[in-house]
């Protein structure tokens, strides 16, 4: 008798065949890796094929693999990870695809497959700088329009590049370079002579 995860892995092989670079079943979950060139077509097949019927996109996020595993990662830097749900088959699936170019990470959009991908892809663009080819409205969603950089990248400085504050003289919000005043953080020790005594 086959388990549910084995049935899902078999269905993946039937629907996607050699479009899958890998299939991993760990901790009660199935994860597949797709090439960026096959990503949109494969996602459409996962939604429409009777053997899979992944009707819902639960989540989509970007991942930066720079410094992953203490710097021993040798693959592409940026990935897009999607979580799919099949209500008909009661299956969940994780799909990972890597952007082939680290300097300009681009993967196809899946907004035409699932409308829910719209804001998720905008978030991955805003925070990681991953571009989604075919997305109709790819603009920032969480950071300010004047924001410089992508704050979830591993090489983004912790303090950022600019800070925003209200200037009462100009009566508006202004941007300025980050100003961090060095300070020594020495704990202050307070001792009471009769502490803990009755």
Write a structural description.
This protein is of the alpha/beta class and 198 residues long. The chain has a single domain, classed as NADH:ubiquinone oxidoreductase Nqo5 subunit (Beta Polymerase, domain 2, 2-Layer Sandwich), CATH 3.30.460. The chain is 18% helix and 29% strand. The protein is built from three helices and nine strands, in the order H-E-E-H-E-E-E-E-H-E-E-E. The strands form three sheets. Strands 1-2-5-4-3 form a five-stranded mixed β-sheet. Strands 6-7 form a two-stranded parallel ribbon. A hairpin with a 4-residue loop joins strand 8 (162-167) and strand 9 (172-177). The relative contact order is 0.12.
Layout of helices and strands, plus pairs?
Layout: H1 4-16, E1 20-26, E2 29-34, H2 39-48, E3 56-64, E4 78-86, E5 91-98, E6 106-108, H3 117-128, E7 131-133, E8 162-167, E9 172-177
Parallel strand pairs: 2-5, 6-7
Antiparallel strand pairs: 1-2, 3-4, 4-5, 8-9
* Helix-strand makeup class: alpha/beta
Largest sheet report = 5 strands, mixed
H/E order of the elements? HEEHEEEEHEEE
In the predicted model, the low-confidence regions spanning at least 5 consecutive residues are: none
Q: What is the helical fraction, as a range of percent?
A: 10-25%
- Strand residue content: 25-35%
Distance between the termini: 71 Å
CATH C-level name: Alpha Beta
Number of strands: 9
Topology-level CATH name: Beta Polymerase, domain 2
Mean pLDDT score: 88
Spatial strand arrangement across the major sheet: 1-2-5-4-3
Shape: extended
Number of domains: 1
* Rg result: 23 Å
């Amino acid at each position: 008798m086959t388990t549910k995860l084995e049935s899902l892995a078999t269905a993946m092989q039937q629907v996607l065949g050699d479009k899958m670079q890998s299939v991993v079943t760990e901790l009660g979950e199935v994860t597949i890796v797709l090439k960026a060139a096959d990503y949109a077509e494969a996602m459409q097949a996962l939604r429409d094929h009777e053997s899979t019927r992944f009707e819902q996109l639960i989540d989509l996020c970007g991942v930066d693999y720079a410094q992953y595993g203490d710097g021993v990662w040798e693959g592409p830097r940026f990935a897009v990870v999607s979580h799919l749900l099949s209500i008909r088959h009661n299956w969940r699936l994780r799909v990972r695809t890597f952007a082939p170019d680290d300097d300009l990470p681009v993967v196809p959009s899946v907004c035409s497959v699932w409308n829910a991908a719209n804001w998720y892809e905008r978030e991955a663009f805003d925070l990681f700088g991953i571009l989604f080819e075919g997305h109709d409205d790819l603009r920032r969603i969480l950071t300010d329009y004047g924001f410089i950089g992508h704050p979830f990248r591993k090489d983004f400085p912790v303090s950022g590049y600019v800070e925003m504050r209200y200037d009462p003289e100009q009566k508006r919000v202004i941007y300025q370079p980050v100003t961090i005043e060095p300070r020594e953080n020495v704990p202050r020790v307070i001792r009471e002579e009769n502490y803990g005594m009755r």
